[in-house]
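Handout, tutorial session.
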Amino acid sequence: LHVASERGFLNIVVLLMLSGTEIDKKNMYGATALILAAQYGNMECAKALVNRGAELDIGDMDEATAFIAACYAGELEVVKYLVSAGCNLKKKSLRMTGIEWASENDHEDVVKFLQENTKLRSPRKKSSESESDEKSARSMAAMRPSAIFKTFKGGLEKMSKKMEENRKEKE
């Protein structure tokens, strides 16, 4: 379910849910299928999971929820959907909220949407001391399992390409 949600394979997601797969099961990094669908912008998978009862506000090992993952990745349409579905906008992952992660990663469209359509405020400019604390926190985050997601995605893409090449060779 996790891989299908991350990759946007809606038919497989639906089939797995109908066969009784646990929707909110966490992978080895603590991410649920909804978190992965949100992080990779797979709106239809996210909708299917939520419609089937996926918990909106479960966090991964760093307490990143689907909303935070979508903000972090700049997935505006998924952010809009999760806000409309009633997710918790104030939860934090590594001491930062979704709007703060969007701002940190220069996703101005996400920040603008959240400012205009929720009660969330723009992140304030930090003093040099608190900036130093933030950089330190981000350095530690790079060593945490959530930082491995990008590496994991790259590995999945390579594996998927290799499988496709092998399939074509057999044909």
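The second record follows below. Compare its token runs with those of the first.
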Amino acid sequence: VWDSVRNEVLVVIEGSDMTTIEVSIPPLQTSYTIEVPSGSQRIFSVYGINTDNSQGKNWGGKVITDLPPGADTTINIYMIPLPTEITPSLAAGIRLTWYAPSGIQGYYIYRATNLNGPYIKIATITTPATEQFDDLDPELVMDSTYYYKISCYNANGESAPSDPVIQLYNP
């Protein structure tokens, strides 16, 4: 169950011991029933996709939960705005810029050295109007590729993460 989204909705369900499930849901549908294998740390992500322009995923929600065998479970997911048009570039470190959404309290920045992760939270930004982050970690390795995802948070929780952006570190 999630908040109504005007355009297409994408549901992604992941777990370390299962095949990822992706389902597209029609606009304005606010619930979906699916059979998911039981197990721990199932990640349910729901994205609102703006098909009217190039913004792509512009709302998202995420819940991580354990699913016991044979149990019916209802999961409520709060949709939170996502930053759009995330762009990496080189500055003193690696700079990320984006368009700030409204209705949030801040951002979490995640980084990985592999497209598939694991993504580690490297920063919490508590100013919602922020549209830039500089990764100045002295441990960044020259000529290495880094992958970043950004999520937003508010009183309802954390959004699903953005799609990854990629940057070769070579200032």
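Points raised in discussion: The chain has no helices and 13 strands.
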